[in-house]
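Human:
Take a look at this sequence-structure pair and walk me through the C-alpha cells.
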Amino acid sequence: MSLDFRSKDFYKSADMMMDLAKELFPICRSITGRGFRLSLDILEQAYKDKWGGDLINTK
C-alpha cells in the first residue's frame, strides 16, 4: 500500500488512508511500548512505498 496525499483522485486517497487507519487502529500502544514502535514501522513503510525516503531518522 502506498499513500498519495496529493492525488487528484480524492476517493482513492481516502480509501488508502482508511486502509491504513484500519491497520493501525487495533494496535495497543504506549509511548515506549511494542505497539508504538510497530505503528511507526507501518507508517514508515507507507511513506517509503510512496516517496522512497525515510520518515524517521534513527541515526
Notes: The mean pLDDT is 77. The longest helix spans residues 34-51.
